[in-house]
Specification:
Layout lengths: L8 H11 L20 H4 L7 H10 L8 E3 L5 E3 H12 L3 H12 L9 H5 L15 H4 L4 H17 L13 E3 L2 E3 L4 H9 L3 H15 L8 E4 L5 E5 L2 E4 L3 H5 L8 E3 L1 H4 L3 E2 L10 E3 L4 E5 L2 E4 L3 H6 L7 E3 L9 E2 L13 E5 L6 E5 L2 E4 L3 H7 L5 E4 L21 E4 L5 E5 L2 E4 L3 H6 L7 E4 L1 H5 L38 E7 L4 E5 L5 E2 L4 H11 L7 E3 L2 H4 L13 E3 H9 L4 H12 L2 H15 L17 E2 L1 H12 L2 H8 L2 E5 L9 E5 L12 E11 L3 E10 L5 E9 L7 H20 L2
Parallel strand pairs: 5-8, 7-9, 10-13, 12-14, 15-18, 19-22
Antiparallel strand pairs: 1-2, 3-4, 5-6, 6-7, 10-11, 11-12, 15-16, 16-17, 19-20, 20-21, 23-24, 23-33, 25-28, 26-27, 29-30, 31-32, 32-33
Helix pairs in contact: 3-4, 4-8, 5-10, 17-20, 17-22, 19-20, 20-21
C-alpha cells in the first residue's frame, strides 16, 4: 500500500501524468501485402462453415443468392448455399473463399438484380483475358453450378499439381502487372494463378478482410438479432449473459450492438456470465464477493456482518459454478468499500475519486462515473476528509467499449484496454452497428494523454483524403470532380463504395427527397395501395407542388404514390402518411425510428412532405436511404417513370385526370453518356435544389449513385449534376479501357 498523501490539484495532475504519458501510436492496420494475401490454412479450411452458415450469411447480406436455385455441376437443382457448401466440402476448400470470389468476380453477394451473364460466369472460372465466351471449351464451364464447382476444384488441383508449369510457385518471383511479386505461400501463388492481376487480388483481400476478419473491440456488448440474447466480447471470445440481472449490473443494454447470429459465429464461446456483479457466493469452502470476474474471499463470517451484508443475500453455489473466475485479494475487517464508492470533491471542481479497498483512484473525467460506475453511490467529500487515504498513481479511464468523441471533432474513438482506438470513418462506424446516441462528447483534456491504439477499419482499402479510386480498377483519379456545390457524392451501385464527394457528412435540409422515405414507409407498412383514399382539405392541404383536388376527391393509393414521387405532390404525401399511421406526426415518428434502425443517425424528419426545414440529412445518409428505396421494385419503377397520367375515382370538380412529367429535366437532355434509371428532385428556400439519381454508364453498364445538395442556382440546377454524371462516365471509360 502506498504512503498516504494529501490530495491537491498538483497531486492530481501528477497522478494523471504518470499514468498517461504519451506513447508511440500503434502501427495502423497493415496495407495490402501482395506477397501474402491468404494463408494456406484459411484457403483449405473447408470445415469453417456449414451449409447453414453459408445460408445465414446470404440471408444476412440480403443477397439475391439467398433464394436462388439452379443446377449444380451434376445437373441437380439446388439452392446456391448447397452448391457452395458442396463444392467446398468436395474439394476441401473454404466456403468463405468461394463467397469472396463470387463477389470479386460478379458482385453476386450484393447485387440485387444480377444478369444472366453474371450468374453464368459467377466465379470467372475458365475465362481468361484473351478468351472469347463463345469458345466451345469455355461454354462447357457456363452456369452457376459449374462455375462454383470449377473455382473450388481448380484450387484443389493446384495443390495436387504443384510441379505443373501453369501453377505459380511459392517463394518464386513472378511479374504481376509489371511489378515483381514473390508469393510467400502456396495460397497466394494460387490466387495469382487464378487471377493474374494485382487489382483483382487486392479486391479479394479487401473483401475477405471486410467480411471475415473484422472483430469488435473487447468490451463490446452484442445482442443477437435472432435470439435477443446478449453477449460480451472479452479476450476475443463471446461470453453469454445467463440472465438480465447479470447483464444490467455490469453494462447498459442500450449500448448493445444488434448483430446477426453469423457475426457471433466468428467468436469462440467463453465462460458464461452467470451471476450479478457484486453477488455474494458461498461454496462449502468459503464465501466470496464476485467483483466482475474476480472472486474475493471474505476473511470470516464476522467480516461479512461488519460490512452490512445480510445472510439472505448469499447464493449457494458449487465449485463448478465458479469455473473460470480468478482468485482475488481477501476482504478483511480493515477493508473499506470493497465494492467501491464514488466521491465528488466539493472544494476541487469536477474532480472525482473511486474509493475501493481503502485506496483512492483518480477518475479521468466525470463521464467515467456515468459509464463505469452507474450503480455506485456518489457522495460529497472535501479534500481534507479524504487526506487519510493513499492515492493510486493510475487513474481510472473509460471502460472498454465506450464510444468517445472530442468536442468540435468528427473523430470517434472506442476504448479498449486503456487505449483509444480510432474508428477510421463513418462507414466503419455504421457498418459495425454503433449508434450516435451512445457517443460521449468529452473535452480534449480527457483523451489527450490516453495512448492511441490500432485504428479500426471496416476494410483495409479505405479511401484516403489525398487519393481516391474509381470503381474496382484501383486506378487513381488524378483530377477529382471540383464544383461550387455545397455538397455532393458519387458512389458505385449497389456496393455503395464512395468514389468522390464534398461535405458528405454535413447535415442540410433535403426538401422533397423526404418523399423517398415517405414512400418507403408506406410500402413497408403494406398500406393497401389498391384502395381508394379521399382528400380532406383540413387534413391534407399543403403548400407548394400539389395535386389539384377538390374536397372529397378520391384516388387510388398507387396513383397517390406516383403523384408523390413523380410529381412531388405534397398533398399526396400527406394523404398517404395519414393512411399509413393515422396522423402525419405518428407517421414521421415511425420513419425516424426506422432511420435509427438503419444507422442513418444524421437524418431526421419533421414532416412527410419535405416542406419543413427540419427535414435534414447528409449525402452519406442519403446514399444509404436511396439504396434501400431502390430495393423495392415498385418504388424503383415509379422513380424511373418519365410521364404519367392519373385518373380520379371520384371527382367533385370534374377534373378527372392529372398529368405529371418527371421533374428531373436531365431526362430530356440528349447525347448523355449515361442513362437515368431512377431519380428524385426537390427544392425549398432552405434546402435549395437537391437531387438524387441512379445512372448507368452506357458504354460499360456500370451503375452509380449521384447526389447533389444545396444547389443555389435554380435556373441551372441540373447543370452540375449533369457535369458530375459526365465526369464519372468519362473517367469510367478511360480506366476501363486501361485496365488489363
Amino acid at each position: 500500500m502506498q504512503t498516504a498523501r494529501k490530495i491537491t490539484a498538483s497531486a492530481l495532475i501528477i497522478a494523471y501524468g504518470l499514468a498517461l504519458l504519451p506513447v508511440p501510436a500503434a502501427r495502423a492496420q497493415a496495407d495490402f501485402n501482395p506477397h501474402f494475401i491468404l494463408s494456406d490454412a484459411e484457403l483449405q479450411d473447408s470445415q469453417s462453415w456449414s451449409r447453414d452458415d453459408v445460408q445465414r450469411f446470404l440471408d444476412a447480406k440480403g443477397s439475391y443468392l439467398r433464394n436462388y436455385q439452379t443446377a449444380d455441376a451434376s445437373g441437380t437443382l439446388k439452392y446456391a448455399a448447397d452448391i457452395i457448401a458442396d463444392a467446398a466440402r468436395n474439394y476441401q476448400i473454404n466456403p468463405k473463399y468461394l463467397l469472396v470470389v463470387l463477389q470479386k468476380e460478379q458482385s453476386l453477394i450484393t447485387d440485387d438484380r444480377p444478369t444472366e451473364k453474371q450468374l453464368d460466369w459467377a466465379t470467372g472460372y475458365a475465362v481468361c483475358d484473351g478468351c472469347r465466351l463463345s469458345d466451345p471449351n469455355i461454354q462447357r464451364r457456363k452456369g452457376f453450378g459449374l462455375q462454383v464447382d470449377g473455382a473450388a476444384g481448380i484450387m484443389r488441383w493446384y495443390y495436387d499439381n504443384l510441379d505443373k508449369p501453369v501453377v505459380k510457385k511459392k517463394d518464386t518471383p513472378v511479374r504481376i502487372d509489371d511489378e515483381e511479386v514473390t508469393p510467400q505461400n502456396w495460397a497466394t501463388a494460387f490466387l495469382y494463378t487464378y487471377t493474374p492481376h494485382l487489382h483483382g487480388n487486392r479486391n479479394f483481400w479487401r473483401i475477405w478482410k471486410t467480411w471475415f476478419e473484422q472483430l469488435y473491440p473487447n468490451g463490446t456488448l452484442l445482442r443477437s438479432v435472432d435470439s435477443g440474447e446478449y453477449w460480451l466480447v472479452q479476450d476475443n471470445t463471446k461470453r453469454h449473459f445467463k440472465n438480465k440481472t447479470a447483464l444490467i449490473t455490469r453494462l447498459d443494454p442500450k449500448l448493445a450492438i444488434t448483430v446477426p447470429e453469423i457475426e457471433l459465429g466468428r467468436y469462440q464461446a467463453g465462460a458464461e456470465i452467470n451471476f450479478p456483479n457484486f453477488s455474494l457466493l458461498r461454496t462449502p469452502a468459503a464465501t466470496y464477493l464476485l467483483d466482475n470476474d474476480t472472486l474475493r474471499p471474505f476473511a470470516s463470517a464476522e467480516v461479512i456482518r461488519k460490512l452490512g451484508y445480510h445472510p439472505d443475500e448469499i447464493i449457494e453455489v458449487s465449485e463448478i459454478d465458479l469455473t473460470g473466475l480468478a482468485a482475488g485479494t481477501p476482504i478483511t475487517a480493515s477493508s473499506t468499500a470493497p465494492t467501491g464508492v464514488i466521491y465528488r470533491i466539493t472544494d476541487l471542481p469536477h474532480t472525482y475519486y473511486l474509493l475501493k479497498d481503502s485506496t483512492l483512484y483518480p477518475i479521468i473525467d466525470q463521464r467515467v462515473v456515468e459509464i463505469n460506475f452507474k450503480n455506485l453511490a456518489v457522495e460529497k467529500r472535501t479534500r481534507q476528509e479524504l487526506s487519510r487515504y493513499p492515492v493510486a498513481d493510475l487513474p481510472i479511464a473509460f471502460a472498454n467499449g465506450t464510444l468517445l468523441q472530442i468536442k468540435d471533432s468528427s473523430v470517434v474513438y472506442v476504448m479498449e484496454g486503456g487505449k483509444k482506438r480510432r474508428l477510421a470513418d463513418d462507414d466503419t462506424f455504421v457498418a459495425l452497428g454503433y449508434q450516435r446516441r451512445n457517443i460521449l462528447s468529452v473535452a480534449p483534456a480527457a483523451l489527450r494523454y490516453v495512448p492511441e491504439g490500432e485504428p479500426i477499419f471496416i476494410n483495409a482499402n479505405l479511401l484516403s483524403a489525398k487519393q481516391k479510386y474509381l470503381g474496382d480498377s484501383g486506378a487513381p483519379v488524378e483530377d477529382l470532380f471540383t464544383t461550387d456545390l455545397p455538397g455532393y457524392l458519387v458512389a458505385e451501385y449497389p456496393s455503395g463504395r464512395i468514389i468522390s464527394g464534398k461535405n458528405i457528412d454535413a447535415r442540410r435540409p433535403i426538401a422533397s427527397l423526404t418523399k423517398l422515405l415517405t414512400a418507403y414507409e408506406v410500402t413497408a407498412r403494406k398500406v393497401p395501395l389498391s384502395r381508394v383514399y379521399s382528400y380532406d382539405k383540413t387534413k391534407h392541404a399543403r403548400e407548394g407542388s400539389n395535386l389539384q383536388l377538390a374536397p372529397g376527391d378520391r384516388l387510388r393509393g398507387t396513383d397517390l404514390l406516383t403523384a408523390m414521387l413523380v410529381g412531388s405532390a405534397n398533398n399526396a404525401a400527406a394523404i398517404l402518411a395519414s393512411a399509413a399511421a393515422g396522423s402525419e406526426q405518428e407517421f414521421v415518428n415511425a420513419v425516424n425510428r426506422r432511420l435509427s434502425e438503419w444507422g442513418a443517425d444524421s437524418t431526421s424528419l419533421a414532416d412527410a412532405t419535405g416542406l419543413s426545414a427540419g427535414n435534414k440529412s447528409t449525402a452519406r445518409d442519403l446514399l444509404k436511404i436511396f439504396t434501400r428505396v431502390l430495393q423495392n421494385k415498385q418504388l424503383r419503377a415509379t422513380l424511373f417513370a418519365t410521364k404519367v397520367t392519373l385518373r380520379e375515382v371520384k371527382s367533385y370538380d370534374k377534373k378527372w385526370t392529372h398529368q405529371f412529367a418527371n421533374s428531373n429535366l436531365l431526362i430530356k437532355r440528349s447525347g448523355r453518356p449515361y442513362r437515368i434509371l431512377a431519380s428524385k428532385t426537390g427544392y425549398t428556400d432552405e434546402a435549395q435544389a437537391v437531387l438524387v439519381m441512379l445512372i448507368e454508364v452506357r458504354a460499360t453498364k456500370k451503375q452509380y449513385m449521384v447526389i447533389t445538395l444545396g444547389n443555389p442556382n435554380y435556373k441551372k440546377r441540373f447543370d452540375e449534376p449533369h457535369r458530375l454524371a459526365e465526369w464519372i462516365s468519362k473517367n469510367n471509360l478511360t480506366i476501363a479501357a486501361a485496365s488489363p
